[in-house]
Specification:
By secondary structure, this protein is an all-alpha fold. The chain has helices spanning about 5-10, 10-45, 45-60, 65-75, 80-90, 90-105, 110-115, 120-150, 165-170, 180-210, 210-215. Helix 2 (about 10-45) packs across helix 10. It is elongated and about 70 Å long. It starts with a helix and ends with a helix.
Length: about 220
């Protein structure tokens, strides 16, 4: 059976796996973004705290994804839980690092001006610092998303959702008629999803970043 014949015959299952894959990455990115920005806000004013935050999230990436999921299975079981924990942890570094860099890059005179007109610390953070730091934060989110698209495929090892199941089935049945088609379908599906997400981030950037800041 040719590749396109295989896709045509299995399009419903492939679409289901693709939607599950995209949903898992999206939800984990939301969690990682909230945590990453909170960590960045809490640490960017202190050199040692920022260094500790970046070093801690960097160390997570040194753990092989398959090992991470394997270690989590005895703690949280199979399925969605180890997938969510693993993807969230792996997504933190680019967001934390870019949040710290972005917040530190805000012109102090703008912050002082906001303070001078009576803005509270929270108001300055929400209305001045975070909006100006948004471009690098968004870049960190884009980088994290591309990473998680590939890592999410490993979730199939723990019976997680997504296109990784197609890849693992193909690998497990190498030598059979459709093994290569399964691996190729899963891989291309992940690539397409990554491109779609990246295009969405480009659109979000155009809608949320003032033209002057983009330039």
């Amino acid at each position: 059976m040719g590749f396109w014949d295989y896709v045509s015959n299995r399009h419903q299952q492939l679409l289901t796996d693709a939607l599950q894959h995209a949903s898992a990455v999206f939800q984990c990115m939301v969690i990682a973004t909230v945590l990453g920005v909170v960590i960045g806000v809490a640490t960017y004013r202190s050199g040692w705290a920022a260094g500790l935050a970046i070093a801690s999230t960097s160390s997570i990436l040194t753990i092989p994804s398959l090992a991470m999921i394997g270690l989590l299975i005895p703690l949280v079981g199979l399925g969605v839980a180890p997938t969510v924990v693993t993807l969230t942890l792996y997504g933190l570094l680019p967001i934390v690092r870019n949040a710290i860099v972005g917040l530190r890059g805000v012109d102090p005179s703008l912050v002082d001006a906001a303070k001078g007109i009576g803005m509270s610390r929270i108001a300055r953070l929400l209305r001045v610092e975070l909006p100006l730091a948004w471009p690098p934060i968004l870049t960190g989110i884009r980088v994290s998303t591309q990473m998680l698209m590939g890592i999410a495929a490993i979730a199939a090892y723990a019976s997680g959702p997504g296109l990784g199941n197609e890849i693992f089935r193909g690998i497990a049945s190498l030598g059979s008629a459709n093994a290569i088609n399964q691996v190729l379908a899963g891989t291309l599906g992940i690539v397409v999803l990554a491109l779609l997400f990246d295009a969405a981030y480009v659109l979000i950037g155009r809608l949320t970043i003032p033209r002057g800041i983009r330039v």
